[in-house]
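Format notes (please read before filing issues)

Several people have asked whether sequences and structure tokens are stored in separate files. They are not. Every record keeps both together, in the order shown below: the sequence lines, then the token lines. Line labels are part of the format and must not be stripped during preprocessing.
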Amino acid sequence: MTALLIDTRAELWDVVIQTGLQVVEALLEEDRQQVCGPRYAHDGARQAGRAGTTASAIVLGGRKVAIRRPRVRRADGEVALPTFQRLAHTNPLTRRTVEQMVLGVSTRRYARSLEPLPPSLRSRSTSKSAVSRRFVARTRAQLETWQTRPLEDLELAVLFLDGLQFARQCVVVALGIDIRGQKHVLGLWDGSTENTAVCQGLLANLTERGLRTDRSLLVVLDGSKALRKAVEQSLGRAAWVQRCQVHKLRNVLAYLPPTKQTAVRAVMQRAYRSSEIAAAKRPLEALARQLEDAYPSAAASLREGLEETLTVLALPVGETLRRALATTNTIENLMGRLRHVHRNVKRWRGRSMALRWAVAGILEAEKGFRRCRGHHDLRALRNALRARDERLGLTTTTQAA
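Then the structure lines:
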């Protein structure tokens, strides 16, 4: 019974392919008839004529399939058929290639991952080198797009910055959220470590492309001192920094024995759920004083950047958006996809390859992007940012409007 089902499935697939190709032939012939008129009919005003067929290929199921394409010619050259131009477009083929490789299919096994074709059809563009060329071209083009795309027309409310070790290189990624809650990958930069120079390189690139540094922007960071220093040097007072509360909690607990971690975690989490900065700051400062004698490193870690972990409590937004902006979880989902893609490569060949594979991971992650949680309050956040501009003298009231 199993063998019968397998044979039936293969035969059904062959019928589907053959029927589809017959439909393609009919559509191509219909295009030719619209240009040349009916076959064997006399037409003195005819501007083009049939010119037989030629060997061509169309994209089908992640490969190119050879067909005989009808030709139409006129005095100034050959006429392109609209149906063939759509079917021969390589964008679907390139997207399929990148998707297969991100999911773990190697270039050598790409052809095996596709549905089999009937023996009468010849396929192309499934070899190891062809798949590799398409992958490299697609990811390189997307990297150039991210590093050159203008940002003047993008009204950002929040900027997330994070980095990770990727193929023995540090890749720093910038993710922006506009006032409608849409997420945008703004760019990525690489270096040997997550140092200030690498982070400044990314921020300088964003500034050159139009990221405004003359007005306030909420910048969400983890506990990286290099990122914090780069933001301060590149954005100055325009950066309204929110340090990730989850990273701060982990850093403090790392200096404590397991017997103390539960109580300290409860105090910090309760403080972070406060509705006002003062109400959150009092228990955190008291906790730091309690830890100072027995665990000075934990107390120092808690005090370091304490006020910046409470920035979101000053925002006139709802609880849902406040929780979304209190941590780097929004960009951590993206970085998790990069870590997953990293495991697909067994042999790395330089920094360029690392960046291109990072691009592939981002392209895959973008398919699952949703609007930011609590996005209905982002306009209130924008108003708070413009009010901060006036307080700091970054912009005048007219400029803010």
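For reference, the curators noted about this record: Residues 143-391 form one domain. The longest helix spans residues 2-36.
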